[in-house]
Design a protein that fits this description.
The complex is a heterodimer of chains A (about 240) and B (about 600). Chain A has about 240 residues and is α+β, with helices and mostly antiparallel strands. Chain A has two domains: about 70 residues, Ubiquitin-like (UB roll), CATH 3.10.20.740; about 130 residues, Alpha-Beta Plaits. Chain A has six helices and ten strands; from the N terminus they run ββαβββααββαβββαα. A five-stranded mixed beta sheet of chain A has the order 2-1-5-3-4, with helices on both faces. A three-stranded antiparallel beta sheet of chain A has the order 6-7-10, with no helix packed on it. A two-stranded antiparallel ribbon of chain A has the order 8-9. In chain A, strand 1 and strand 2 form a beta hairpin. Chain A is globular, with a radius of gyration of 18 Å. Chain A starts with 5 loop residues before the first strand and ends in a 7-residue tail after the last helix. With about 600 residues, chain B is α/β, with parallel strands linked by helices. Helices cover about 40% and strands about 10% of the residues of chain B. Chain B has 25 helices and 14 strands. In chain B, the strands form three sheets. In chain B, strands 5-11-10-14-12-13 form a six-stranded mixed beta sheet. In chain B, strands 2-1-3-4 form a four-stranded mixed beta sheet, covered by helices on one side. A four-stranded parallel beta sheet of chain B has the order 8-7-6-9, with helices on both faces. Chain B is globular and about 85 Å long. The chains are: A alpha+beta (about 240), B alpha/beta (about 600).
């Protein structure tokens, strides 16, 4: 469809795109931020968090999964779409157990950073308070499923990059949860390693390194300096590491 | 104790040790062991050389796969609103009391478990339940008593009275499909006489549109699949009839399977596919044996297999795949995932199945009724077919009528029939509302009964649930909300979390604790789920509720409290554990109204 590339408009601004780019990747490359959580520049589109909700020629869709095509009229920066995103963030907050003040990921957490940037003032909905386990069996990492947002980045990284297939998504509906592929179901019984891609992709604080807590003080962290809408434009360009 | 390996070997052999058949393998294995124990899990994983987590991702996704023992007798009450209206809740309580059981818990002796399941498609003969996947219909207190007796006596299921398991067709009005006499091979021979392109032209002339609800032109779908690049092609019949209130596919599968399979073969003829799958919902497991028998008969009569009906290079055969209790698998890409032995999570679309379907090959996915219509078109011709119905909705539509009416069952009409006409025919004089299209459909009130069943007016996949004036719309809304919360696949945020939030809010309103606050929140979530959900399940999850909130506003408002807001946190309920520990439940151990 978009074999030769071309351009579309995003909130009126002309965005050039290369063949194969999605609306999200083309916008990022052009320096325009569209909120997202499950999308990652190193992985194919996933489309589960729905934070990148946009309208394309008046129709609802996800910027991360829709391929850019010439002449598309894309809207992203509208009060209606930001309202949808705020509600989706609130859903993610009430679904898990997110206590930012005590979380080591605070300041580097995309969920928290987006909530700040999109001015989510409260979780609004009834908290689910699910009972989720912590797995501290691995010598270098622990898993705190209370903070998991089901983006499956760890699943994808371990399967597609590390070739280890350590994580999987199981369950359905609100019972969805990440499971670990080992006889005991514990991370300590896998060959998960600090050098794994899966060890660094978690956008929230569900996969955390042990023994390095608060090395960078809160207030001096990634998203403490500038909002995610500015920081991630740098981070999310393919091939560029934080 | 059956040795796992020796029991597993024939199953694995049957499925060629193919990991894409994992769902089928687990279903067959569970038939023997009753559940997927850790030992069975390990044995299957090692035999297929897959990660055991792949097995977990299925057993924890499909409602009818069990990773914990569920008993020798696994009772599941159908939980559609029509079952409830016919008294299912009281019958389940009766059974629990008689068996001294808690819902969802296995009895101490490992004999029996009793729970709810989503609509089992027996709405015209409910209340219904499944016992080890076999449907028992027309339940009464007397019948429950008999069933409890048989369970306590550990009577094998094949010795239970046949009468318990009788499933009626209830064809009340027949037209092109339901009125046709079975003439094996007629459709295939007629299409062969026209040739693949000739038949496709007839199909185009007929203007046949998909009966699953979306109404996509069938000829266009088949042609797109034929023209898509790919070494192999597939035809899939979507017999995952999970929409609450729909049961017409069950009757087509039970009494018109020859015509359905011929329709699939015609799709093979047009697209060049040589293999078809019938994806049969787990709740219809009892239909599997008769369907296999039809397939065998057709193979014997050279209506399936190689050189069908003597036509050189017309090779096509059909395999039955079983579902395992997941409504979302009615969504075509989720169904394909399930066919590939994975959890039924809808794919990103585009690409569509016609270009990238089963195993990435071009695939046609059609509803049961659509394929039966295709077979009928081969016989009557495109022009004659197109004269039935309306200009934009040609042919007939089979409605599954249930609820408050004298004659529930199947009604086949030419498209364009009014809702009022259907109500008159089924004997429903005092109607407050009709839910059309199932839980994911629209709720119509008497002012709208002049609406016509047609793609251009009131489209439907076929559910037609009648609610008498005395019924409480909030009970229906609650039933639907819990259905979607249970059936959400959990992939995308709005559906995974939103459907649960909605169920909670409706419960709160129904319990008399909801305020305008919840009412407005529901409206907001209605728009957000529709706009941002990944697939049709989430997008349509609040459609009926939105209709009901608008059309039965007074009924909702009567239930709302006048306070601005009432917190969800219930201090008295939170003290339940403390009371339990103290062994007290007297009035003084409860907080009063004055708190």
């Amino acid at each position: 469809m978009s074999e030769g590339g071309g351009s579309f408009t995003l909130d009126g601004q002309v965005i050039a795109f290369a063949p194969g780019q999605t609306i999200l990747t083309a916008a990022t490359a052009a320096g325009v931020y569209i909120p997202h959580l499950c999308a990652h520049p190193d992985f194919p589109p996933h489309g589960s968090c729905k934070l990148c909700a946009v309208t394309v020629n008046g129709r609802d869709g996800s910027a991360c999964t829709i391929e850019a095509a010439p002449g598309q009229e894309v809207r992203s920066d509208t009060p209606e779409l930001h309202e949808i995103r705020r509600v989706l963030l609130q859903m993610l907050f009430v679904e898990g157990n997110h206590f930012c003040p005590g979380c080591e990921k605070s300041g580097r957490c995309k969920l928290q950073a987006l909530a700040y940037d999109l001015e989510m003032l409260s979780p609004h909905f009834v908290q689910f308070f699910p009972h989720r386990e912590i797995d501290a069996s691995h010598p270098e990492f622990f898993l705190d499923f209370n903070r998991c947002i089901m983006c499956e980045l760890c699943v994808r990284a371990s399967r597609d990059v590390d070739g280890k297939n350590i994580f999987a998504l199981a369950g359905r509906g609100r019972e969805s949860h990440i499971i670990v592929n080992s006889p005991s179901g514990r991370l300590g019984d896998t060959d998960f390693a600090a050098t794994d891609k899966a060890a660094e992709v978690c956008p929230v604080g569900a996969i955390l390194r042990k023994e390095v807590g608060f090395a960078t003080p809160i207030g001096a962290r990634l998203y403490d300096q500038a909002p995610i809408s500015q920081v991630d434009l740098q981070v999310d360009l393919p091939g560029r590491e934080k | 104790m059956i040795a796992i390996e020796s029991a597993l070997d024939p199953i694995l052999g049957r499925h060629r040790r193919d990991p894409t058949a994992l769902l089928q393998i687990l279903r067959d294995t569970q038939e023997i062991f009753g559940w997927i124990s850790p030992e069975v899990r390990a044995a299957v994983a090692s035999a297929l050389e897959i990660a055991p987590t792949r097995i977990d991702s299925l057993t924890r996704f499909y409602a009818h796969l069990y990773d914990a023992p569920r008993g020798k007798y696994r009772i599941l009450f159908s939980d559609n609103i029509t079952d409830r209206m016919a008294g299912s809740v009281a019958l389940m309580e009766l059974m629990l009391k008689k068996l001294k059981l808690e819902r969802g818990k296995l009895s101490a002796d490992g004999l029996v478990s009793v729970d709810f399941t989503s609509c089992t498609g027996m709405c015209d003969q409910g209340p219904a339940l499944l016992v080890n996947n076999l449907p028992a219909t027309r339940l009464t207190a007397w019948r429950i008593d008999e069933i409890c007796g048989l369970i306590r006596a550990r009577t094998p299921l094949d010795q239970w009275p046949e009468e318990f398991f009788r499933v009626e067709d209830h064809i009340r009005r027949a037209d092109l499909l339901l009125g046709a006499a079975e003439r094996p091979g007629e459709a295939i021979r007629a299409a062969l006489a026209l040739g693949a392109q000739g038949f496709l032209d007839e199909l185009k002339k007929s203007n046949l549109r998909g009966r699953g609800g979306a109404g996509f032109p069938t000829a266009l779908k088949w042609r797109s699949c034929r023209d898509a690049p790919g070494e192999r092609r597939f035809v899939v019949c979507n017999a995952d009839e999970g929409e609450p209130g729909t049961f017409k596919d069950r009757v087509l599968l039970q009494s018109f399977s020859q015509s359905l399979f011929e329709g699939m073969a015609l799709a093979g003829l047009v697209t060049g596919a040589q293999k078809g799958f019938l994806y049969l919902r787990g709740e219809y497991s009892y239909l599997r044996a008769p369907l296999e028998a039809t397939l065998q008969k057709m193979r014997r009569e050279s209506l399936l297999g190689r050189n069908i009906a003597g036509a050189k290079n017309f090779d096509f055969d059909i395999e039955i795949h079983m579902g395992a209790g997941a409504y979302v698998c009615g969504e075509e890409t989720a169904l394909i995932e399930s066919l590939e032995g994975k959890p039924g999570r809808p794919r990103i679309r585009p690409p569509f199945p016609v270009t990238h379907g089963y195993l990435g090959f071009p695939t046609v996915v059609n509803n049961v009724e659509t394929l039966c219509n295709a077979a009928a078109i081969a016989v009557v011709g495109g022009d004659a077919y197109a004269r039935r119905g309306t200009t934009r909705s040609t042919g007939t539509k089979i409605l599954s009528v249930s609820g408050d009416c004298e004659r529930p069952g199947l009604y086949e009409y030419p498209f364009g029939v009014t809702v009022a006409q259907v109500l008159e025919d089924c004997g429903a004089p005092d109607v407050g509302a009709v839910q059309i299209g199932g839980a994911a459909g629209n709720c119509l009130i008497p002012e709208e009964f002049g609406r016509r069943i047609a793609f251009e007016d009131q489209p439907t996949a076929g559910a037609f649930m009648v609610f008498a004036n005395r019924r409480d719309p909030i009970e229906a809304a609650r039933n639907f909300a819990h259905f979607f919360a249970h059936e959400s696949c959990g992939f995308c945020t709005p559906c995974r979390v939103g459907t649960s939030l909605v169920a909670g809010m409706i419960d709160k309103i129904a319990a008399g604790h909801g305020a305008q606050y919840e009412f407005l929140d529901l409206k907001r979530l209605h728009d957000i789920l529709r706009a941002s959900s990944h697939c049709g399940l989430g997008q349509a999850a609040m459609l009926a509720l939105g209709d009901m909130m608008q059309k039965f506003k007074p009924a909702f408002e009567r239930r709302l409290i006048t306070k601005d807001f009432e917190p969800d946190f219930d201090l008295d309920a939170a003290l339940a554990r403390a009371r339990e520990l103290a062994g007290r439940d007297d009035a003084a151990a409860h907080l009063g109204e004055d708190i």
